[in-house]
Amino acid sequence: MNIMTGTSIETLSDEAKTWTAKAIAGVIVADDVLKKEELKILREAIGFLDDAKLVNQIINQIKKRSLPELEQFKTDRQTAVKIIMILAHTAFVDTELTHHEIDYVVAAGKKIGLAKKYILRVIDWSQECVRVEIEQEKLMADGHKSKAKYTN
Questions:
Q1: CA–CA separation, 40 and 94 (whole Å)
Q2: pTM score of the predicted model
Q3: Element (H, E) at 141
Q4: Contact, 48 vs 10, CB < 8 A?
Q5: Closest by alpha carbon to 20, among 9, 28, 30?
Q6: Long-range contacts of 34-43 (CB under 8 A, 24+ apart)
Q7: What parts of the chain have a pLDDT lower than 70?
Q8: Taking the CB of the first residue and of the last residue of the chain, which one, N or C, has fewer CB atoms within 10 A?
C-alpha cells in the first residue's frame, strides 16, 4: 500500500513531467546533501523524459549542486496538487527536512499557483505519509520474520 498513490509522475503530461523533474532536482540540491532515497525519485522522474539533453542537464545541475531555474508553470489544480505532493514527498523521503528544502518546495509551489499555507499543509501531510510508510515496512519485515503460532 502506498499512501502517495495517485501522485505518480507517470500520470502527468509531458510538460508537467519536465517541470517536475527539474523541481525534484532542486529539492535534492536545496539542502546540499544527496540522499539515495531522493535520487531514487529523481531516477523515476527523469526516466519519463524523452529528451536526453534535458536529462543530462538535470544530472549535471545536481552534480554541480546548482538549483535549476523554474519558470512559472500554469496548469490545472489537479496537476498542481500532484506536483506539490511529489515535491513534498521528495523533500522528506529521507526523514529529514531542512528549512532550505521547505523554502524551495514553497517557492516551487508558488510557481504552480499554490498558496504558501496550502503548501505547508501538504509538507506536513507528506511527513506523516513517510512515517506511516516506514512503520508499514517495519511491520512487514517483522511479520515475515515471525514464526507462525496457530491456535485451534
A1: 11
A2: 0.85
A3: helix 116-145
A4: yes
A5: 9
A6: 34/62, 35/93, 35/94, 35/96, 37/93, 37/94, 38/90, 38/93, 38/94, 41/86, 41/89, 41/90, 41/93, 42/90
A7: 1-7
A8: C
